[in-house]
Here is the input.
Amino acid sequence: MKLSLILLPCVAWAQPTVAPLQFEVASVKRVSPPENGLTSSSVRRDPGLYTASNMTLRSLLINAYALKDYELQCPDWMESERYDISARISAGATKAQVDVMIQNLLIERFKMQVRREQKERP
Here is the structure.
């Protein structure tokens, strides 16, 4: 019995990977609560720059995913720890693209997993 081995070159036709939308540069910093107990937060979307000041992670998520307050359930720490975000937006990015960039930034930096489900509520 004669055994023949034939080697065929295998070519993997990889499809190009589309990189997720990201800011050019982004900084996320945890901030200390103000000593006077007053909390003021803000979000600005200037051309070329996104800034969120003194925001809870819960507020950032509600803003990024355009949720109603009652639509997000999260641990208590997400409502108390505060963050500053500063990110440079690519020229020509649309509001929808910036929203996706914010979502991707939160997922990447906070190692978040987002799950959507529908629930009946009274």
About this structure: DSSP finds two helices and four strands in the chain. The radius of gyration is 22 Å. The CA atoms of residues 18 and 73 lie 31 Å apart. Strands lie at 25-31, 42-46, 49-56, 82-88.
